[in-house]
TrEMBL record:
Species lineage: Eukaryota, Fungi, Dikarya, Ascomycota, Saccharomycotina
SUPFAM superfamilies: eEF-1beta-like (SSF54984), GST C-terminal domain-like (SSF47616)
Molecular function terms from GO: guanyl-nucleotide exchange factor activity; translation elongation factor activity
PANTHER family: EF-HAND AND COILED-COIL DOMAIN-CONTAINING FAMILY MEMBER (PTHR11595), ELONGATION FACTOR 1-BETA (PTHR11595:SF21)
PROSITE patterns (alphabetical): EF1BD_1, EF1BD_2
CDD domains assigned to the protein according to its UniProt record, in alphabetical order: EF1B
Similarity comment: Belongs to the EF-1-beta/EF-1-delta family.
Residues in Translation elongation factor EF1B beta/delta subunit guanine nucleotide exchange domain copies: 123-209
Protein biosynthesis is among the record's keywords: yes
Cited InterPro entries: Arc1-like_N, eEF-1beta-like_sf, EF-1_beta_acid_region_euk, EF1B_bsu/dsu, EF1B_bsu/dsu_GNE, Glutathione-S-Trfase_C_sf, Transl_elong_EF1B/ribsomal_bS6, Transl_elong_EF1B_B/D_CS
Official protein name in the record: Elongation factor 1-beta
Record domain Elongation factor 1 beta central acidic region eukaryote: where: 87-113
Length: 209
């Protein structure tokens, strides 16, 4: 029986039996015959082909995937042959051994996840400019007031004074924030509350760590 024309194939079972001792449709290497059958199969069973190829990408994770319920109802193959394994059996026909294996795999997955521990918090490094009112502003007090601001998830870093002209120097300071805990805009507002020293603030740079 030739399988170069997929219309001659009765069903997936027939193709499966044909390929039991073969790696290719014809000969010992891939040919257009394989391409023809492959395309015909995808055309005839597009949703199954899409699902099969997608799930195949998880091969290395099979043992650690979480539990899930198999849809109820019998498969066509099982209906034709009672000896076939029923992958779509009802809940009343669930095999206890299979449930035991599933539970063990779920436990293994949970153990591996717990062993890895929580993912590190997402952080960003920010460079902030703090501009004083004039050349008479006490810069040391300005710096002390800025660094006295304490948010959970905020770490102050190095700083420098940068001349902006007319004897005025702005404070450029680095800081690290945990993204979920600290809003940079809220931090700017906190810095700008020091109205005796701070005229304004600007975020010069921001990038993920």
């Amino acid at each position: 029986m030739s399988f170069t024309d997929f219309s001659k194939v009765e069903a997936i079972k027939s193709l499966n039996e044909f390929l039991a001792d073969k790696s290719y449709i014809e000969g010992t290497s891939a040919t257009q015959a394989d391409v023809t059958v492959y395309k015909a199969f995808q055309k005839e069973y597009p949703q199954f082909a899409r699902w099969f190829n997608h799930i195949a990408s998880f091969t290395e994770e099979f043992d650690t995937l979480p539990a899930g319920k198999v849809p109820a109802g019998e498969s066509a193959a099982a209906a034709e042959d009672d000896d076939e394994v029923d992958l779509f059996g009802s809940d009343d026909e669930v095999d206890e051994e299979a449930e035991k294996v599933k539970a063990e795999r779920v436990a293994q997955y949970a153990a591996k996840k717990a062993a890895k521990g929580p993912k590190p918090a997402a952080k960003s490094i920010v460079t902030l400019d703090v501009k004083p009112w004039d050349d008479e502003t006490d810069l040391e007090e300005l710096l002390a007031n800025v660094k006295s601001i304490n948010f959970d998830g905020l770490t102050w870093g190095a700083h420098q004074w940068v001349s902006v002209g007319f004897g005025i120097k702005k404070l450029t300071i680095n800081l690290v924030v945990e993204d979920e805990k600290v809003s940079v805009s809220d931090l700017q507002e906190a810095v700008e509350e020091d109205e005796d020293h701070v005229q304004s603030t600007d975020v010069v740079a921001m990038q993920k760590l």
